[in-house]
Amino acid sequence: MGDDCFNGAAPVDVLNxxxxxxxxxxxxxxxEKVIGDQFGKACPGSFTDEPxxxxxxxxxxxxxxPWTGRMEKEFKARRGYALKPHLASLFFDEGDYRRVRVDxxxxxxxxxxxAYSKQIYDWCEQRGIVATGHMMxxxxxxxxxQAVGASMAHYEWxxxxxxxxxxYFTYDSPVLPKQCASVASQLGDGECCRRCGAGPGxxxxxxx
Length: 208
Prior knowledge:
The protein is of the alpha/beta class. It is built from seven helices and five strands, in the order ααβααβααβαββ. The chain has helices at about 15-25, 30-35, 70-80, 95-125, 140-145, 150-155, 175-185, and strands spanning about 45-50, 130-135, 160-165, 190-195, 205. The chain has a five-stranded mixed sheet with strand order 1-2-3-4-5. Strand 4 (about 190-195) and strand 5 (about 205) form a beta hairpin. The longest helix is centred in the middle third of the chain and has 30 residues, at about 95-125. It starts with 16 loop residues before the first helix and ends with a strand.
């Protein structure tokens, strides 16, 4: 099951809450052991960088659809009908493919948010620090669907939602900053952040 793009391993199933719980134990919990007394001080939060369900770097990454072992069960429970008879509609314009694709990516988004973003948010909330960072391919609605489902659904579960607005190029669309700022204003205190100049060695900035 391994792939050369992942050093002989496979991409992580970010739709599986048990997988992400293990990730948190191996990373966040270990940081807490070392710097826990500095949480909220020298360490104000946890930054996540470009999580997605796309097997990034794979030559056919946009020819795949996200999947997890619970997909059929969760789809039936959340959408009210079986997915398996409609699998072809995810790839071909046959049957009620528009409805199937919307329902599928709504389900994928919910599973991703619950497994990844909300678990990290809860972990940070319990320790008085902020969960921040930004999602993969967040600059437009089509590419968001391909990579994360919907960025705004993830921003809800960040105390300080963020974006990737690098200094060496800018986006023509206002979608990127507006989505983030909108969630911060509606659900939080209006604070959000952006990563700038990462390529040439820059850092992040916060603002309201």
